[in-house]
Design goal:
Elements (H helix, E strand, L loop, with lengths): L7 E7 L8 H14 L5 E3 L14 H4 L6 H13 L2 E10 L5 E8 L5 E6 L10 H4 L8 E3 L4 E4 L8 H9 L4 E5 L7 H15 L2 E5 L4 E2 L2 E2 L5 E3 L5 E4 L5 E7 L1 H10 L11
Helix pairs in contact: 1-3
Bound molecules: ligand LYUYDEPV.
Length: about 270
Protein backbone atom coordinates (compact mmCIF):
# COMPACT_ATOMS: atom_id res chain seq x y z
CA UNK A 1 0.00 0.00 0.00
CA UNK A 2 1.59 3.34 -1.08
CA UNK A 3 2.36 5.57 1.90
CA UNK A 4 1.63 9.31 1.91
CA UNK A 5 4.53 11.20 3.53
CA UNK A 6 3.74 12.33 7.08
CA UNK A 7 1.10 9.68 7.74
CA UNK A 8 1.05 7.16 10.59
CA UNK A 9 0.39 3.63 9.37
CA UNK A 10 -1.53 1.66 11.99
CA UNK A 11 -2.30 -2.07 11.92
CA UNK A 12 -4.94 -3.59 14.19
CA UNK A 13 -4.58 -7.34 14.72
CA UNK A 14 -8.01 -8.78 15.45
CA UNK A 15 -6.70 -12.10 16.69
CA UNK A 16 -8.85 -15.17 17.25
CA UNK A 17 -8.98 -16.33 20.87
CA UNK A 18 -9.77 -20.05 20.94
CA UNK A 19 -9.57 -21.70 24.36
CA UNK A 20 -8.46 -24.92 22.63
CA UNK A 21 -5.27 -23.15 21.49
CA UNK A 22 -2.45 -23.32 24.07
CA UNK A 23 -1.41 -19.87 25.29
CA UNK A 24 2.16 -20.42 24.12
CA UNK A 25 0.94 -21.12 20.59
CA UNK A 26 -1.24 -18.02 20.50
CA UNK A 27 1.62 -15.97 21.90
CA UNK A 28 3.88 -17.19 19.09
CA UNK A 29 1.14 -16.55 16.53
CA UNK A 30 0.62 -13.03 17.84
CA UNK A 31 4.35 -12.32 17.70
CA UNK A 32 4.50 -13.57 14.10
CA UNK A 33 1.49 -11.41 13.15
CA UNK A 34 3.19 -8.38 14.69
CA UNK A 35 6.38 -9.09 12.76
CA UNK A 36 4.35 -9.36 9.56
CA UNK A 37 3.29 -5.73 10.10
CA UNK A 38 6.88 -4.47 9.70
CA UNK A 39 6.50 -1.23 7.75
CA UNK A 40 3.63 -0.02 9.91
CA UNK A 41 4.36 2.64 12.52
CA UNK A 42 1.95 1.32 15.13
CA UNK A 43 0.55 -2.18 15.69
CA UNK A 44 -2.29 -2.98 18.10
CA UNK A 45 -3.50 -6.21 19.72
CA UNK A 46 -6.77 -6.73 21.65
CA UNK A 47 -7.53 -6.91 25.36
CA UNK A 48 -6.31 -10.00 27.25
CA UNK A 49 -5.77 -11.89 23.99
CA UNK A 50 -3.47 -14.38 25.70
CA UNK A 51 -6.21 -15.76 27.96
CA UNK A 52 -9.51 -14.19 26.79
CA UNK A 53 -11.26 -11.19 28.35
CA UNK A 54 -14.12 -13.37 29.64
CA UNK A 55 -12.01 -16.33 30.78
CA UNK A 56 -12.32 -15.14 34.38
CA UNK A 57 -11.58 -18.58 35.83
CA UNK A 58 -8.22 -18.62 34.06
CA UNK A 59 -7.08 -15.14 35.10
CA UNK A 60 -5.09 -16.25 38.16
CA UNK A 61 -3.29 -19.02 36.30
CA UNK A 62 -2.58 -16.74 33.33
CA UNK A 63 -1.26 -13.85 35.43
CA UNK A 64 2.24 -12.68 34.54
CA UNK A 65 4.64 -9.98 35.75
CA UNK A 66 5.60 -7.13 33.43
CA UNK A 67 8.73 -9.09 32.47
CA UNK A 68 6.89 -12.35 31.94
CA UNK A 69 6.73 -14.48 28.76
CA UNK A 70 4.07 -12.45 27.00
CA UNK A 71 5.79 -9.13 27.63
CA UNK A 72 9.13 -10.58 26.53
CA UNK A 73 7.64 -12.01 23.34
CA UNK A 74 5.95 -8.70 22.53
CA UNK A 75 9.12 -6.73 23.25
CA UNK A 76 11.04 -8.95 20.85
CA UNK A 77 8.30 -8.67 18.21
CA UNK A 78 8.22 -4.87 18.43
CA UNK A 79 11.99 -4.71 18.07
CA UNK A 80 12.16 -7.25 15.24
CA UNK A 81 9.42 -5.46 13.31
CA UNK A 82 10.68 -1.98 14.20
CA UNK A 83 7.21 -0.82 15.22
CA UNK A 84 5.49 0.88 18.12
CA UNK A 85 3.43 -1.95 19.59
CA UNK A 86 0.36 -1.55 21.74
CA UNK A 87 0.43 -5.23 22.73
CA UNK A 88 -3.12 -5.20 24.05
CA UNK A 89 -3.38 -6.12 27.70
CA UNK A 90 -2.29 -8.94 29.96
CA UNK A 91 -3.42 -10.20 33.34
CA UNK A 92 -0.62 -8.50 35.26
CA UNK A 93 0.47 -10.02 38.57
CA UNK A 94 1.57 -6.93 40.44
CA UNK A 95 4.35 -6.98 43.02
CA UNK A 96 1.77 -7.00 45.82
CA UNK A 97 0.03 -10.00 44.23
CA UNK A 98 -2.91 -8.02 42.88
CA UNK A 99 -4.19 -8.81 39.39
CA UNK A 100 -4.59 -5.94 36.93
CA UNK A 101 -5.80 -5.66 33.35
CA UNK A 102 -2.65 -3.97 32.11
CA UNK A 103 -1.93 -2.64 28.64
CA UNK A 104 1.66 -2.69 27.41
CA UNK A 105 3.13 -0.22 24.89
CA UNK A 106 6.54 -1.04 23.46
CA UNK A 107 8.83 1.25 21.46
CA UNK A 108 10.47 0.10 18.21
CA UNK A 109 13.57 -0.77 20.25
CA UNK A 110 11.49 -3.18 22.34
CA UNK A 111 11.48 -0.95 25.42
CA UNK A 112 8.35 -1.09 27.58
CA UNK A 113 7.48 2.59 27.12
CA UNK A 114 4.08 2.73 28.83
CA UNK A 115 1.73 0.59 30.90
CA UNK A 116 -1.93 1.37 31.56
CA UNK A 117 -4.05 -0.39 34.16
CA UNK A 118 -7.68 -0.45 33.03
CA UNK A 119 -9.65 1.95 35.23
CA UNK A 120 -13.20 0.71 34.62
CA UNK A 121 -13.39 -3.04 35.30
CA UNK A 122 -16.25 -4.92 33.68
CA UNK A 123 -18.58 -7.35 35.45
CA UNK A 124 -20.55 -5.32 38.06
CA UNK A 125 -20.53 -7.88 40.91
CA UNK A 126 -18.49 -10.65 39.31
CA UNK A 127 -15.63 -11.46 36.95
CA UNK A 128 -13.07 -8.77 36.24
CA UNK A 129 -14.75 -6.29 38.60
CA UNK A 130 -14.11 -8.69 41.50
CA UNK A 131 -10.89 -10.39 40.42
CA UNK A 132 -8.92 -7.38 39.18
CA UNK A 133 -7.58 -4.27 40.88
CA UNK A 134 -8.53 -1.07 39.06
CA UNK A 135 -6.10 1.40 37.64
CA UNK A 136 -6.37 5.00 38.79
CA UNK A 137 -4.52 7.14 36.27
CA UNK A 138 -5.20 8.05 32.62
CA UNK A 139 -2.13 7.31 30.49
CA UNK A 140 -0.92 8.81 27.22
CA UNK A 141 1.95 7.60 25.06
CA UNK A 142 3.72 10.18 22.87
CA UNK A 143 4.80 8.74 19.52
CA UNK A 144 6.86 10.75 17.03
CA UNK A 145 3.82 11.97 15.04
CA UNK A 146 0.84 11.52 17.36
CA UNK A 147 0.06 11.11 21.04
CA UNK A 148 -1.88 8.01 22.00
CA UNK A 149 -4.60 8.03 24.65
CA UNK A 150 -4.94 4.58 26.25
CA UNK A 151 -8.26 3.00 27.18
CA UNK A 152 -9.46 -0.61 27.41
CA UNK A 153 -12.82 -2.06 26.37
CA UNK A 154 -15.36 -1.12 29.09
CA UNK A 155 -13.50 2.20 29.52
CA UNK A 156 -15.20 3.11 26.21
CA UNK A 157 -18.44 3.74 28.09
CA UNK A 158 -16.93 6.52 30.23
CA UNK A 159 -16.50 9.71 28.18
CA UNK A 160 -14.84 11.51 31.08
CA UNK A 161 -11.75 9.32 30.68
CA UNK A 162 -11.40 10.43 27.07
CA UNK A 163 -11.78 14.09 28.02
CA UNK A 164 -9.00 13.61 30.56
CA UNK A 165 -6.86 11.99 27.85
CA UNK A 166 -7.56 14.85 25.43
CA UNK A 167 -6.59 17.35 28.13
CA UNK A 168 -3.38 15.34 28.58
CA UNK A 169 -2.61 15.75 24.87
CA UNK A 170 -4.12 12.66 23.28
CA UNK A 171 -4.89 12.83 19.55
CA UNK A 172 -5.34 9.11 18.81
CA UNK A 173 -7.23 6.81 21.17
CA UNK A 174 -6.18 3.16 21.17
CA UNK A 175 -8.82 0.83 22.63
CA UNK A 176 -8.01 -2.90 22.81
CA UNK A 177 -11.11 -4.90 23.65
CA UNK A 178 -12.83 -8.21 24.22
CA UNK A 179 -16.29 -6.89 23.32
CA UNK A 180 -19.22 -9.33 23.04
CA UNK A 181 -21.04 -9.72 19.72
CA UNK A 182 -24.41 -9.18 21.41
CA UNK A 183 -23.45 -5.58 22.18
CA UNK A 184 -21.66 -4.86 18.88
CA UNK A 185 -23.97 -1.93 18.14
CA UNK A 186 -22.76 -0.21 21.34
CA UNK A 187 -19.11 -0.92 20.43
CA UNK A 188 -19.33 0.83 17.09
CA UNK A 189 -21.57 3.65 18.33
CA UNK A 190 -19.43 4.46 21.38
CA UNK A 191 -16.14 4.27 19.48
CA UNK A 192 -17.47 6.69 16.88
CA UNK A 193 -18.87 8.98 19.59
CA UNK A 194 -15.48 9.17 21.31
CA UNK A 195 -13.89 10.14 17.99
CA UNK A 196 -16.47 12.84 17.20
CA UNK A 197 -16.74 14.41 20.65
CA UNK A 198 -12.98 14.50 21.16
CA UNK A 199 -12.05 15.24 17.56
CA UNK A 200 -9.50 12.44 17.67
CA UNK A 201 -8.68 9.25 15.84
CA UNK A 202 -10.04 6.06 17.41
CA UNK A 203 -8.30 2.73 16.86
CA UNK A 204 -10.67 0.17 18.39
CA UNK A 205 -9.17 -3.34 18.23
CA UNK A 206 -11.60 -6.18 18.99
CA UNK A 207 -11.18 -9.91 19.49
CA UNK A 208 -12.35 -12.68 17.15
CA UNK A 209 -13.85 -16.05 18.07
CA UNK A 210 -15.77 -17.38 21.06
CA UNK A 211 -14.28 -18.10 24.49
CA UNK A 212 -15.84 -18.81 27.88
CA UNK A 213 -19.14 -19.09 26.04
CA UNK A 214 -19.02 -15.44 24.93
CA UNK A 215 -19.04 -14.77 21.18
CA UNK A 216 -16.75 -11.85 20.47
CA UNK A 217 -17.82 -8.97 18.24
CA UNK A 218 -14.60 -8.60 16.32
CA UNK A 219 -15.48 -5.61 14.09
CA UNK A 220 -12.33 -3.69 14.90
CA UNK A 221 -12.81 -0.20 13.56
CA UNK A 222 -10.90 3.02 12.89
CA UNK A 223 -12.66 6.40 12.97
CA UNK A 224 -11.08 9.70 12.00
CA UNK A 225 -11.49 12.91 14.06
CA UNK A 226 -14.72 13.78 12.16
CA UNK A 227 -16.21 10.35 12.85
CA UNK A 228 -15.66 9.00 9.35
CA UNK A 229 -15.06 5.25 9.17
CA UNK A 230 -11.58 4.61 7.75
CA UNK A 231 -11.71 0.81 8.09
CA UNK A 232 -13.82 -1.87 9.75
CA UNK A 233 -13.18 -5.59 10.13
CA UNK A 234 -15.65 -8.44 10.06
CA UNK A 235 -16.11 -10.94 12.89
CA UNK A 236 -13.15 -13.24 12.15
CA UNK A 237 -9.38 -13.03 12.58
CA UNK A 238 -8.19 -10.13 10.42
CA UNK A 239 -5.61 -7.35 10.26
CA UNK A 240 -6.81 -3.81 9.53
CA UNK A 241 -4.19 -1.41 8.20
CA UNK A 242 -4.93 2.29 7.77
CA UNK A 243 -2.88 5.45 7.23
CA UNK A 244 -3.68 8.22 9.70
CA UNK A 245 -3.01 11.88 8.94
CA UNK A 246 -1.90 13.43 12.26
CA UNK A 247 -2.43 16.93 10.84
CA UNK A 248 -6.16 16.17 10.45
CA UNK A 249 -6.65 16.27 14.22
CA UNK A 250 -5.44 19.88 14.47
CA UNK A 251 -7.36 20.82 11.32
CA UNK A 252 -10.67 19.48 12.56
CA UNK A 253 -10.15 21.05 15.99
CA UNK A 254 -9.29 24.40 14.39
CA UNK A 255 -12.13 24.42 11.87
CA UNK A 256 -14.77 23.27 14.40
CA UNK A 257 -13.38 24.32 17.81
CA UNK A 258 -16.04 22.69 19.99
CA UNK A 259 -13.48 21.43 22.49
CA UNK A 260 -12.71 25.06 23.34
CA UNK A 261 -16.37 25.65 24.24
CA UNK A 262 -16.32 23.24 27.14
CA UNK A 263 -17.59 24.86 30.32
CA UNK A 264 -18.01 22.05 32.83
CA UNK A 265 -15.14 19.94 34.13
CA UNK A 266 -12.33 22.11 32.84
N1 LIG B 1 -14.02 -6.67 28.47
C1 LIG B 1 -14.90 -5.69 28.67
O1 LIG B 1 -14.55 -4.64 29.24
C2 LIG B 1 -16.31 -5.90 28.19
C3 LIG B 1 -17.11 -4.62 28.12
C4 LIG B 1 -18.53 -4.88 27.65
O2 LIG B 1 -18.91 -6.01 27.39
C5 LIG B 1 -19.45 -3.73 27.51
O3 LIG B 1 -19.08 -2.60 27.89
O4 LIG B 1 -20.56 -3.95 26.96
Amino acid sequence: MLRVVGTVRASLIQINVDPQEPVAERRARAAALVQEQAGSDLVVLPELWHVGAFAFESFAAAAEPLDGPTARAMSDAARDAGVWLHAGSIVEKALDGALCNTSLVFSPSGELARTYRKIHRFGFDKGEAVLMTAGTEPVTAPLPDTTLGLATCYDLRFPELFRALVDAGAQTFVIPAGWPAKRRAHWTLLARARAVENQSYVLACGTAGTHAGVEQAGHSVVFDPWGETLAEAGPGEEVLTVDLDPARVAKVREEFPALKDRVLGR
